[in-house]
Write a structure and sequence with these properties.
Layout lengths: L1 H17 L3 H18 L3 E7 L2 H9 L4 E9 L8 H4 L7 E8 L6 H10 L8 E2 L2 E2 L5 E5 L2 H16 L7 E4 L4 E2 L7 H4 L4 H17 L6
Parallel strand pairs: 6-7
Antiparallel strand pairs: 1-3, 1-6, 2-3, 2-8, 4-5
Helix pairs in contact: 3-8, 5-6
């Protein structure tokens, strides 16, 4: 269901792109370059907890997070495509790369956001989405991040919560196709967004209003 919708949107976006003027492309490139320079000064964190449309929207609602990019991580294949990911055989999870200002939000808080915005007890599943590509995972870059995530998992288990979250070092993060980026924001009336993504975002906001922008 989700794949068919994406394919139709992708074709539409390709047609629109062909009609853009050269000057519009130049403006876009300049804006993208400026944004990349800003992002380079920020810290990064990597999480997977189901459909990345949902996860991206959750993290972008948090104070101190400047950007969240949808992508793929945790598998062995290089340059994976969405079609490959959807088979569940690539080993990759739908993940997000979070760019954040550590002077405003800590990694500990981002881990709290992660656990408060999905159900870590359901193995390879979030809501209607099932498969290893939808698993719960934290991909850490440093030993400090590993310790913080491990402690959060320990505390959840002590409280009686079942946790299936995979804790693994980051290998490679492959950025997803352009049409996935900011998908919830750009397609608020799409059926999956209305039925799954927006309710999930609202549920998170109710749990952690103190971290919202």
């Amino acid at each position: 269901m989700k794949l068919l919708t994406i394919l139709l949107i992708s074709i539409s976006m390709m047609s629109c792109a062909q009609s853009d003027s050269h000057s519009s492309d130049s403006d876009h490139d300049a804006n993208a370059s400026a944004m990349n320079q800003d992002l380079d000064s920020l810290q990064t964190a990597y999480f997977a907890s189901g459909c990345f449309w949902c996860v991206e929207a959750v993290f972008e609602s948090v104070k101190g997070v400047q950007e969240a990019e949808s992508g793929y991580s945790g598998g062995a294949s290089k340059n994976p495509t969405y079609e490959e990911i959807c088979t569940g055989k690539s080993g990759h999870a739908e993940a997000v790369k979070v760019y954040y200002d550590e002077d405003i939000v800590s990694y500990e808080t981002l881990v709290d956001v992660f656990f408060n915005s999905h159900d870590p007890s359901t193995l390879n599943r979030q809501g209607p989405d099932a498969g290893t590509q939808y698993r719960s995972a934290i991909f850490y870059e440093t030993d400090e991040e590993r310790k913080i995530a491990k402690e959060a998992i320990r505390e959840l288990r002590l409280s009686g919560t079942k946790v299936t979250t995979e804790l693994t070092p980051l290998d490679v993060f492959w950025i997803a196709e352009d049409y996935h980026q900011d998908y919830e924001r750009n397609h608020p009336n799409q059926s999956y967004i209305r039925a799954v993504s927006i309710p999930r975002l609202n549920a998170f906001k109710a749990k952690m209003p103190e971290v919202l922008k």
